[in-house]
Design a protein that fits this description.
116 residues, mainly alpha, elongated
């Protein structure tokens, strides 16, 4: 049975706020949380890709010698933060089940229907 990771909208918004509030430095944390809780390969892949992103962009930003900054790094950071926000809000968490069932299961009738 597959593990579910349900989150309401407030929890999703808090995860996005963590990623944006840290200016992208902690963008990998929610994906590590999901990977540990569910254990799916896709969750571990998302965590690994965001961790690799941090390992590449941090030295890249630190090695830049110009005072105006690197425009390609800025575009990469902004696009990655939008991607992470979209995944956190709409793609990563399972939606909680609705309160009322969408259908009613009728009990099966016993016996052969042609012999009644």
């Amino acid at each position: 049975m597959a593990k579910r990771l349900e989150a309401g909208w407030w929890q999703r918004i808090v995860w996005v706020f963590l990623a944006w509030g840290s200016c992208g430095l902690l963008v990998w944390v929610p994906f590590l949380y999901a990977a540990i809780r569910r254990g799916r390969g896709s969750d571990w892949g998302a965590f690994a890709s965001f961790a690799f992103y941090e390992c590449v962009t941090l030295p890249w930003a630190a090695s830049g010698g110009s005072s105006s900054g690197d425009p390609f790094l800025g575009v990469a950071v902004v696009l990655t933060m939008f991607l992470a926000a979209g995944l956190l809000l709409f793609g990563m968490f399972d939606t909680p089940p609705s309160k009322q069932p969408l259908y009613v299961v009728m009990p099966a009738q016993q016996g052969n229907p042609y012999l009644r």
